[in-house]
Design goal:
Helix content is 76%, strand content 4%. It has a two-stranded antiparallel ribbon. The chain is mainly alpha-helical. The chain has helices at 2-7, 19-26, 30-42, 61-85, 88-105, 110-127, 131-153, 155-173, 177-198; strands at residues 46-49, 53-56. It is elongated, with a radius of gyration of 18 Å.
């Protein structure tokens, strides 16, 4: 619940997370709150500030670059692993996920658009048959989640996203690793450019 509140900006960057206050809000003891805060710190959503305690992390331009640099390398690995391991059913699921995102992106429900984007990438991660890679990539995507809404608010950006998803899907289905890597790299570079513009 703390994570959801951070990702949805109910808890804003730099806001202090007082353990006792959060324990009171949730009606629980301090120990699970401390454990949750520690886990959120490991995920990059909370930082420990000297003499202040835990606070919601901000994302600097350098942090965005660092996260997306790592994510791009891992996504390139993911698309090639997916190509070598994807099942016929997963090929169908990938195309359906791409089309579901395209349909959602023509509407105005930003949460639905973000959800369909998550589902599209999840099909690729699952096709790698590598749960560790799936876990790491999901963690990196969550660190950027707070800024995704700014990116998808722009209808012109959504047309780019539809085109990028289609190119990634076509490359994976046709088994073209280098093409898939180029497509996912462009996808992430464009995300970086637009997130930095909105910071």
């Amino acid at each position: 619940e703390l994570k959801r509140r951070i990702l949805d900006f109910e808890l804003v960057p730099c806001q202090l997370l007082m353990v006792q206050e959060q324990a009171n809000i949730f009606g629980i003891s301090r120990t699970p709150v401390r454990e949750a805060i520690h886990k959120l710190e490991q995920e990059g959503l909370v930082v420990m500030a000297p003499r202040k305690g835990a606070q919601v992390a901000t994302i600097s331009a350098q942090s965005v670059r660092d996260v997306l640099e790592v994510r791009k390398a891992m996504e390139c690995l993911a698309v090639c692993l997916a190509i070598s391991r994807i099942t016929p059913q997963e090929r169908i699921a990938l195309r359906q996920a791409e089309e579901a995102f395209a349909t959602a992106s023509r509407g105005n429900d930003l949460r639905l658009i973000a959800q369909k984007d998550e589902e599209f990438h999840k099909v690729i991660y699952m096709a790698t048959k590598n749960p560790k890679l799936d876990m790491l990539l999901n963690n990196l995507r969550e660190q950027m989640y707070r800024y995704r809404f700014e990116y998808i608010k722009d209808a012109n950006m959504r047309e780019d996203l539809r085109r990028e998803h289609r190119e990634i899907t076509d490359a994976i289905i046709k088994g073209e690793c280098e093409r898939a890597k180029a497509a996912i790299s462009i996808h992430i570079d464009n995300q970086e450019e637009n997130i930095l513009k909105n910071l």
